[in-house]
Amino acid sequence: ITYDPKNEVLYSFMRDITQQNRAKNALRKSESNLRTIINTTTYGILILDQEGKIRFVNEAAMIFFGRSEAELLGSDFGVPVCDQDGKMEIEIFNQKQDARIINILVSKIDWQEKPATFVSLHDITEQKRTEESLRYQAYHDLLTGLPNRRAVMERIEQVLDCQHIYPNYYFALLFIDLDRFKIVNDSLGQLVGDQLLIEVAKRLKKQVTQFDYVARLSGDEFVILLENISSIEEAKTIAHDIRMDFHEPLEVAGQHIVSTVSIGIAFSSHNYKTSLEVLRDADNAMYRAKSRGKDRYEVFDQTMHTQALRSLTLERELRKALEEKQFEIYYQPIICLKTYKLMGAEALIRWHHPQEGLISPGEFIPLAEEIGIIVPLGAWVLDRVCQDLESWQPLLEKFEDFAISVNLSGRQLQMSDLCETIDQIIDQRGTNPRHLKFEITETLLIDNLEYTTMVMEHFRSRDICISIDDFGTGYSSLSYLHRLPIHTLKIDQSFVAEMQDYSENTRYPIIEAIVTLANALDILVIAEGIETLIQMQILQRLGCEFGQGYLFSRPIPERDFRAFLTGHKVLPSLPQIQG
């Protein structure tokens, strides 16, 4: 408003500043809200000038550094970020000297009308620790602390790359398996088993240098990767030392446990392309060591790979053979050594392969046991035998105590419904149980004595006889012979094969002891594997009552065995030793 000398208004000008005041108030409110957000966020926020001096700091940043606003403002940030833009990580120490990992986000801004650097600080220490823990778990066995399968496979890949670069770079992979771990686990419990694995890991690490790689694959399987070695002989020496070291007991839960090891060795080869191939060959060599008696090492060779491929092929075709009934039962006669009369036979399975012809049971029975096919295969054998017994029934009346021996495998003895399965087959076929005899190897009997005893008692209640096969080769015990309903002992053919001299000065103490023991316990004795007249005569002299072997007959098909029963085929007339 403008006034004249007489104080009268000459003219007036008015401007509405309501919106301007509102804008200022909104700006002040926005700045207040922004400051509140900045001070309440868990992210530390700094604003640096062009010299790297701190010009603004929020409360989270003060907590990060453990310093006040007054201490931080004007101080040097200490990290050269003014010329950067993006993300980075730094490690800082607070006043307690605790290391913290900070993720930094840097961007350029204008601050108070001057170029500045905006710095966001995020504490990722716990996130990093979690990631490290997950990474450790992904590459380590949590029980023993050793690297796991994934870790050792990646390490082998690195070694293969190294070998491709340096032709004279050699390595070896030792695949180690405990020989008696299952027995320890089953008898002493899983906690003791876990402690045993921990002690095994410690012992293995002591056997190698810091440059060698010890890992646990799974269960009781360990591997050692020997890097940059001179030759296969060096790997053999280490394997030998490990094997001998495990002859010394391990102290676990106050007990001294001896658990020998079987070791397979795969030596470096330029044929190896992947870590899986190396592990496969070491595994095959370990299984060869197992099959040859355990407590030993074997070096992989190409024949093992060929045999492994053969096993895979047989496994596939074995399953097909079971579906297509490519099997047949052969019977090997059992003879009374006093009268030469037929007393029964042992039922033996044969596989008629459509392309390969007759495949030896020694080749496919262990495989069937391993993959579990032995259970349905064993049931098929019993069913087939029961059918044959049913068809022979009119012919058996003239035979006294005639019985067909059927082998029971370890897998079958582990079945909780074994008795029910056998009863069902016998009842369905209408078989007289007196004509059946089940053979159980001595080792299988001892492995699970309590359950096997229950099964044997059930068999006795049904008048089914029990024969202990391969007697003398396992863990002989007078106590179980005395307590269990055992009808027959079969002397293993390995003992019979040693009988070559009939002279009275030659003694066969093991067979003499078995016969004497059996007579004392009123148990029958059958010697298997009789091939010569001298062997038969020695057994007669020692008082062995029954025998089977090539001297009398090879295993024969059902139609040929029926000829024995009908009298159309007679056993060879063999002289009995006199005096």
Task: Please give a structural write-up.
The protein is of the alpha/beta class and 579 residues long. 44% of the residues lie in helices and 25% in strands. The protein has 21 helices and 24 strands. The strands form five sheets. An eight-stranded mixed barrel has the order 15-16-18-19-20-21-22-23, surrounded by four helices. It has a five-stranded antiparallel beta sheet with strand order 4-3-7-6-5. Strands 9-10-8-13-14 form a five-stranded mixed beta sheet, sandwiched between helices. Helix 5 (149-165) crosses helix 9 (275-291), helix 6 (181-188) runs antiparallel to helix 7 and helix 10 (302-324) crosses helix 11. The longest helix is centred in the first third of the chain and has 23 residues, at 18-40. The chain is elongated. The termini are far apart. The model has no long low-confidence stretch (mean pLDDT 84).
What is the gist of this entry?
With 579 residues, the protein is of the alpha/beta class. The chain is built from 21 helices and 24 strands. Helices cover 44% and strands 25% of the residues.
